[in-house]
Amino acid sequence: MFLFNRESVYIGYSIEEMSKVRGALEKEGIKYSYKVVNHSGQWSGRGTRRGRFGSFGMNMNYEKQYSVYVHRKDVEKAKYLVNSALHQ
């Protein structure tokens, strides 16, 4: 979509907040992409926290990190919309 011309407008751990952010951007017609990083990992391989330490003591509220990106030309408007959506 816009791999090198994108900028992050939201990074967080809440699926509810992620939903609000996506809804606000969609309502205004701003194209976006998103990424979900699972810090515990599906497999217990070398590159995951679970692979190194197991899942004991992990706060599951911070298991997944959500990031939303927009084209650089839309950053200012998108940041305003994200802030408005999250602080209503």
What's the CATH topology name? Alpha-Beta Plaits
Strand order of the largest sheet: 1-3-2
Please, how many helices?
Answer: 3
Fraction of residues in H or I helices: 25-40%
Largest sheet: 3 strands, antiparallel
How widely separated are the two ends? 30 Å
Report the mean per-residue pLDDT as an integer: 84
Low-confidence runs:
none
Please count the beta strands (DSSP E, at least 2 residues each): 3
Structural class: alpha+beta
The rounded Rg comes to 15 Å
Q: Beta-sheet strand percentage? A: 25-35%
What's the number of domains?
A: 1
Overall, the morphology is: globular
CATH architecture: 2-Layer Sandwich
Order of helices and strands: EHEHEH
For the record, what CATH class applies?
A: Alpha Beta
Describe the structure.
- With 88 residues, the chain is of the alpha+beta class.
- The chain has a single domain, classed as Alpha-Beta Plaits.
- Helix content is 34%, strand content 25%.
- Strands 1-3-2 form a 3-stranded antiparallel beta sheet.
- The longest helix has 13 residues, at 15-27.
- The mean pLDDT is 84.
Defining traits:
single chain, 88 residues, Alpha-Beta Plaits, 34% helix
Write the layout of secondary structure elements.
Layout: E1 6-12, H1 15-27, E2 32-38, H2 49-53, E3 64-71, H3 75-86
Antiparallel strand pairs: 1-3, 2-3
Helix pairs in contact: 1-3
